[in-house]
Amino acid sequence: MSNANIEVSMVTGSCLCGNVKYEISGEVGDIVHCHCKTCRKAHGSAFSSIAGVKDSDFKLVGDVKLGCYESSPGKNRYFCPNCATQIYAKKDGTKHIVLRLGSLDDDLKSKELNHIWVSQKANWYTLNSNLPEYLEFE
């Protein structure tokens, strides 16, 4: 059986200063919008839009060593050491990363799934979405 008709499209991303570049050769999971206090603080934003990517499908391009911060036990956030753009998070024992979608250079075919941790949402904005909302991570 031939795989000649299967087209794999590459998705790319980078940090604000361009030091960090990456490629994704596989599927980017459904999009989740996280409103937890940690994501808000880490991104300096109302929430963080994220999606899962298999470790084997994610590749850093170049030789820049990412900075790392353990934001909660067993969860590390990786970022550009120059401009501090968050690229992804990784929980110990998983086979995927949690990609920070703000670092993408390309459009995605992924769909929005839901909002999580709305129990920690900042009080200075209103969600106007038809997506499901969860008080915590379900």
- Count of DSSP strands: 10
What is the spatial order of strands in the main beta sheet? 6-7-8-9-4-3-10
Number of helices: 1
- Uncertain runs are 1-7
Percent strand equals 35-45%
Structural class: mainly beta
Shape: globular
Helical residues, percent: under 10%
Mean pLDDT, as a whole number? 90
Span of the ends, CA to CA: 40 Å
Characterize the largest beta sheet: strand count, sense, and whether it forms a barrel: 7 strands, mixed
Radius of gyration: 16 Å
Q: Topology as H/E string? A: EEEHEEEEEEE
Architecture overview:
- The protein has 138 residues and is mainly β.
- It contains 1 helix and 10 strands; from the N terminus they run βββαβββββββ.
- It has a 7-stranded mixed beta sheet. A 3-stranded antiparallel beta sheet has the order 1-2-5, with no helix packed on it.
- It starts with 10 loop residues before the first strand and ends in a 22-residue tail after the last strand.
- Mean pLDDT is 90; it is low at 1-7.
Can you summarize this structure?
Helices cover 5% and strands 36% of the residues. By secondary structure, it is mainly beta.
Task: Considering the chains and any ligands shown, give keywords for the structure.
138 residues, mainly beta, seven-stranded mixed sheet, three-stranded antiparallel sheet, disordered N terminus
Write the layout of secondary structure elements.
Elements: E1 11-14, E2 21-24, E3 31-34, H1 37-43, E4 48-54, E5 58-61, E6 67-72, E7 75-79, E8 86-91, E9 96-100, E10 112-116
